[in-house]
Amino acid sequence: MLDNLHNVNIAIVAAPLIGALIAGLFGGAIGRVGAHTVAIIGVAIAFLLSLLMFNHVVVQDAGIVTHSVYTWLVSDGITFEVGFLVDKLSAMMMVVVTFVSLMVHIYTIGYMAHDEENWPEGSGAGRNSYQRFFSYISLFTFSMLMLVMANNFMQLFFGWEAVGLVSYLLIGFWLKRPTATYANLKAFLVNRVGDFGFLLGIAGVLMYFNTLDYAAVFNAAELHKDLTMSLWPGAEWSVMTVICILLFVGAMGKSAQVPLHVWLPDSMEGPTPISALIHAATMVTAGIFMVARMSPLFELSETALSFILIIGAITALFMGFLGIIQNDIKRVVAYSTLSQLGYMTVALGASAYAAGVFHLMTHAFFKALLFLAAGSVIIAMHHEQDMRRMGGLRKYMPITWITSLIGSLALIGTPGFAGFFSKDLIIEAVHASQLPGAGFAYVCVLLGVFVTAFYSFRMYFLVFHGKERFRDVHHGHGHHAVHEPHETPWVVTLPLIALAIPSVLAGGMYITEMGFGNFFGAAIQVLPQHDVLGQLAQNYHGAWGMVLHGFLTAPFWLALAGVVTAWLLYMKFTHVPALIQARLQIIYSILEQKYGFDRFNDWFFAGGSRGIGRLLWQWGDVRLIDGLLVNGSARTVGWLSSVVRHVQSGYLYHYAFAMILGLLLMLALFVIAG
Amino acid sequence: MFADLPLLSLVIWTPIIGGLLVLAAGSRNALEAKALALLVALITFLLSLPLFTSFDTATAAMQFTELHPWIAAWSINYHLGVDGISMPLILLTTFTTVLVVIAGWEVIKDKPAQYMASFLIMAGLMNGVFAALDAALFYVFWEAMLIPMFIVIGVWGGPRRIYATLKFFLYTFLGSVFMLVALIWMYLQSGSFAILDLHAMPLSLNAQILIFLAFLLAFAVKVPMWPVHTWLPDAHVEAPTGGSVILAAIMLKLGAYGFLRFSLPITPDASQQLDWLMIALSLIAVVYIGFVALVQQDMKKLIAYSSISHMGFVTLGMFIAWRIADNTGSMQGAGMGIQGAMVQMISHGFISGAMFLCVGVLYDRLHSREIGDYGGVAHTMPRFAGFMVLFAMANAGLPGTSGFVGEFMVILASFKANFWFAFLAATTLILGAAYTLWMVRRVVYGEVTSDKVAALQDINGREFLILGVLALMVLLLGLWPAPLLDVMRPTVEHLVQHMAVSKL
Fold first, then answer.
1. Are A79 and A46 in contact (CB under 8 A)?
2. Are the CB atoms for B391 and B248 separated by under 8 Å?
């Protein structure tokens, strides 16, 4: 039985990988239909088998499945393995990842149907771009599964970087666009800054635990809690704090926490399906998953937890502000994702790992839904992304409209919808937390509720209600140029509906177990003094009770205020936003500059590095080393070369070969004579 | 059955004699000569395979040994043998030589037979360097191997080839002279040129330090380590593609091999005394050179600097052993550093070779190495672009490619020595990705920038074969490095034990 499950695990990762290889390497031969068929079959197999594992590990509660697949290498007595661990945490992640991925695969058939239009005439790279896209998203699914199913830090890092690679390839998918290749390079490099910390954290784990196997490390964690290390003379740091903060730096890169968030908004240059899959539902939540996975380590460092709490809180609120002023429909959703990742991070910092992962799950559904719905709108608008040129789409796109509304209601935390349960849980958990920084974080996440509701419904009203502004745009071309928007084909709307269902239901279904029960079992460990969810459980009286109580709490009224404000400003008094913008010019320009992060990074890091590089090259290599040391013997070189110039280079090799021949003869002679 | 053959002599002399035959054939028929060269390279590669398949992974002792007296008066022997450190490097040499012959097939129009012959002879001599167990024999191969390389750069090189060759010659020659002096001094003290005898030879600390410094001059130039690295970018830029491939894939490894074969075992106490110097130079290579690579406009120069930066990991991994002992109280982890260095050497052979071949593919078509002359290559050469992105990712150390394995191991090991060593070494994650992928962005991505780029032809079958084989090796070593590690384990463990024992 167990052996069979081991094979199931291997099949789960192999199926999308094989799909990716076939679609990628033989895309030209099998054509578009062949490519998307194999890719979808691969992911569908992974999804079904993930359900099987979920059933075994969670529903039947038949124990975790962990095994090694092969030994990657053995060095200095330490074995590095590729292996899987399916416990309740990874089982849930596997189902979410494969489900969203499957939906995105189907959706892509519609979204990329006319991809040839995005490539220059005769471009070789554009020839099989459709097949290549499917290959990439299947490869992504494989990488993400390797990440969540890992049973050791090495493989975690493998998956971690592999999803980064695919993200790089997909953000820059339309590689002729300078903005796309700027964005993918930026994404990769910023993520590498995070990985830099992450890798050092892993090195720290290896140094103190002498293994990279999760189980062995977590079992021994307690023994190491009082160890210290000296980073510089006189600074004794707790080993756990150093390791945890280093690991968290990795999470800050992948899960786009301030100040490493800068890559995510730009990643919207990629096609919308991957924004949904990679940059909303799955990859960006890898950091959240990782910290939850490492809960036995993070529990041992309150310093690290406080750090996480504060970083998350800043991200949750201040990235939300930026969502308010965006006009590009995808960027609104992107900033919303940043803000929601902040919420998850706050939960981790408050030791409410289960709440963070719970929000990860509900967010995966409703945010993938919102992105795919945005993509559906973009298709209908013929690749127009500016919301100022939309409006009134409700009657043309009923399915997109209703599913978007569901997604938005879930996002803002309307009682009863999935997002309500997970977000309320986070807010309550932070409220209960005693860690330094929890007070600040509480204010941030509470204010964030208003902001979330405001930008979400600003978007909703601008796109689906009000004047049909897309009719104004085309006046220059004559009115016949207006394409009547219409609902997108079933391959696009089916995933919207399929994602809308869990966006409503997944919260209420799992709040009791995931939020307050022991859903994750031993996968997540919390020390008694940090157990905020345990405290909250004492006042919990079922999902229904929570919904009813939800109408009486501050978050609900803040969300309602946000929706009403959005309605007033963008439906009722539509001239007011411009007035506000004019009056608050300073604040507006700060937000428009995105707090100046991009400018600073371009100037300081990008420009600074090039400056240092030029300095070291021109002054170090060229002037100092070559100029002084080497060409101090420059005259020697000049003299020698003048000698050599007399020897015609045509004959040079004759001389040289003669030399070798002589040398060899001598050698042979000695061997024989000896 | 193979173990009875003098395999090491065969992998040394087959390409040398074959090279001479190619030279002879070349004056009659170029195609015949090229076919013969390919045949010789393939035979040599096949002959080297039993070294791996019949290798005994349970012992640290020298294997496939051959011992014949050569110059009895000075007790110099024709003494060959390999262990887990040298055997993989011989395989890398024979493998790379096949690729270089194929890579030069249509490209070299001028004296193709002589070109091929140079590489065959060079391969034999480099195998000799790795297989020699007699210091005098080692030195002969070490010096002789440079001659074909001078010829390759001097005859088939670019416009400034004479300057580059001379710079290369002066650097390496000055370094080697000191090594020769050290070897002769040790011979006079011990009466033996056998390298294994020198390992066991007792030496005072002062003697060790002088010998260490003499070796350092010879080996640091070859690696090359900062600040004696400036010959390498010039040599690469002027060398023909094949020359760059061999230079990067094999020749740089000779210096690192020298540290493992000579410096660490013969002068362990001096290595311990001066490890701060080696670590500092290594980290400077990683960081300083990483920044310099960032601003290069010439693709070959960029990859050359990237090579120097990656070789910094090799020397770092070798010399952190005593710092680990100081910091943790045991040498555990030192082996990982040295093994990481070894893996990095092999991996760098594949990746840098592949990167130079990629530049060669572009250069053959457009006759420019300037990044600015390209842009949007993916539109006209999609298959090539796929390879280029793969090798660039490997160069940036992406897990799943061989480029990750060595860096990972060295970073893990150096963390045990000192947090800040690991910190500085790990900056390669950012810098390596920055300079490699920025180049990719400017060359491969974007709109087609010029009519010349628009007229580019995608890689042909021959180029596809070479890059494909390298891609397979890069992925294989990245996904399953265990066999390579198994081969070198006893040797490295033995070396670490040897290093831990003071000679004083």
1. no
2. no
| Contact (CB, 8 A) for B356 and B466 | no
Question: Please, are residues A641 and B323 in contact by the beta-carbon 8 Å criterion?
Answer: no
Q: Above 60 in pLDDT, residue B323?
A: yes
Which of A123, A438, A470, A157 lies closest to A309 in space, CA to CA? A438
Is the Cβ of B500 closer than 8 Å to some Cβ of chain A?
Answer: no
CA A616-A621-A627 angle, to 5 degrees, is 130
Tokens 């459980």 appear where?
Answer: A537
- Determine if the pTM surpasses 0.90: yes
* Residue-level pLDDT at A658: 58
Determine the distance from the C-alpha atom of residue B5 to the mean position of all C-alpha atoms in its chain, rounded to a whole number.
27
Note the pLDDT tens digit of each residue in A397-409.
999 999 999 999 9
> Count of A–B CB contacts within 8 Å?
215
Residues in chain A: 674
Provide the residue type at B258 as one letter.
G
List Cβ<8 Å contacts ≥24 apart for A185-189.
A185/B437, A185/B438, A185/B441, A186/A262, A186/A263, A186/A266, A187/A263, A187/A264, A187/A266, A187/A267, A188/A164, A188/B433, A188/B437, A189/B430, A189/B433, A189/B434, A189/B437
Across B415-437, average pLDDT: 94
Condensed to tens digits (0 to 9), the pLDDT of residues A314-324 reads 999 999 999 99
Does the interface ipTM go beyond 0.95?
no
DSSP state of A257: -
Q: Which of A112, A76, A91 lies closest to A361, judged by CA?
A: A91
Question: Which tokens sit at A570?
Answer: 């963008």
Q: 3-class SS at A277?
A: helix
Calculate mean pLDDT across residues B73-94: 92
In A104-233, the DSSP E strands lie at 228-232
pLDDT at position A123: 87
The distance of Cα A343 from the centroid of its chain, to the nearest Å, equals 15
B437, A612: Cβ pair inside 8 Å? no
CB contact under 8 A, B162 and A231: no
The pair of three-digit structure tokens given for residue B106, joined into one six-digit string: 């249509």
Q: Which percentage of chain A shows pLDDT scores above 90?
A: 63
DSSP annotation of B370: B
| Residue numbers in A near B111 (CB within 8 A) | 653
Residues 6 or more apart whose CB falls under 8 angstroms from that of A638 comprise none
Residues B310, B311, B316, B318, Cα dihedral to 10°: 130
Which parts of A210-261 fold into alpha helices (H)? 214-220, 239-254
Beta carbons within 10 angstroms of residue A215's beta carbon: 14
From chain B, the residues in CB contact with A657 under 8 A are 23, 114, 117, 151
- Rounded CA separation A290/A287 (Å): 5
* Per-residue pLDDT at A648: 44
Among chain A residues, the shortest Cα distance to B418 is held by A231
What whole-number distance in Å separates Cα of residue A509 and Cα of residue B291?
53
Mutate to test the interface with B, among A17, A25, A70, A73 (most CBs of B within 10 A): A73
Q: Determine the Cα–Cα distance for residues B248 and B360; give it in Å rounded to an integer.
A: 14
Closest by Cα among A347, A518, A554, A359 to A433? A347
Q: Nearest Cβ partner of B292 from A72, A161, A621?
A: A621
Report B:214-273 residues touching A (Cβ under 8 A): 227, 230-231
Neighbouring-strand partners of residue A237: A229
Tell me the DSSP string of A488-551: PPHHHHHHHHHHHHHHHHHHHHHIIIIIIS-TTGGGS---GGG-HHHHHHTT--HHHHHHHHHT
Distance, in angstroms, between B261 CA and closest chain A CA?
Answer: 20
Query: Who among B117, B334, B416 is closest to A207 (CB)?
Result: B416
Question: Are B450 and B377 within 8 A, CB to CB?
Answer: no
Calpha distance A363→A348 (Å, rounded): 15
- The tokens describing A428, both together, are 């309550």
